[in-house]
Design brief:
This protein is mostly helical. The protein is 44% helix and 6% strand. It folds into 2 domains: 4-63, no CATH class; 84-128, no CATH class. The protein has a 3-stranded antiparallel sheet.
Length: 137
């Protein structure tokens, strides 16, 4: 079975809005609609799951040649929490331990990089971002 993609996944692949994805894929065979039907007092609520094969077939039909898509990794979503700093500290400590890191300077550099990303780079571009430190240049 083909991997099921969300509307947001397909929108990021096609570089278009979620509304455009819903309009293009809602009626295609193989697309799963988990939403609620329209009633007299309520408009239709759509939650689509679109198989990767359906997206690839759609693109192949449009381009006239076989297409394979690569879906960007989704960022892990976390709820707001009073204990978020503690969880972040534990995660950083675990990553440092797994990589055998003991240098205070490295932990400070990681914290500084995280702050710079959060303040100045859109989250959608974080995965493409690579730091060049003095040793790497």
């Amino acid at each position: 079975m083909s991997e099921l993609l969300t509307v947001a996944d397909v929108a990021s692949v096609l570089k278009c809005s979620a509304d455009a994805v819903v309009k293009r894929f809602a009626k295609l065979a193989g697309v799963i609609d988990l939403g609620k039907a329209e009633t007299r007092n309520r408009r239709q609520y759509r939650v689509l799951r679109i198989p990767r094969a359906v997206v690839e077939k759609y693109l192949a039909d449009k381009s006239g040649r076989p297409i394979q898509i690569q879906v960007p990794e989704r960022a892990e979503r976390r709820r707001k929490s009073a204990a978020w700093e503690n969880r972040a500290t534990l995660n950083l400590a675990k990553a440092g331990l797994q990589n055998g890191e003991k240098s205070k300077a490295v932990y400070l550099r990681i914290a500084d990089h995280a702050r710079m990303l959060a303040l100045h780079v859109p989250e959608s571009e974080w995965a493409d971002f690579e730091w060049l430190d003095g040793d790497d240049v």
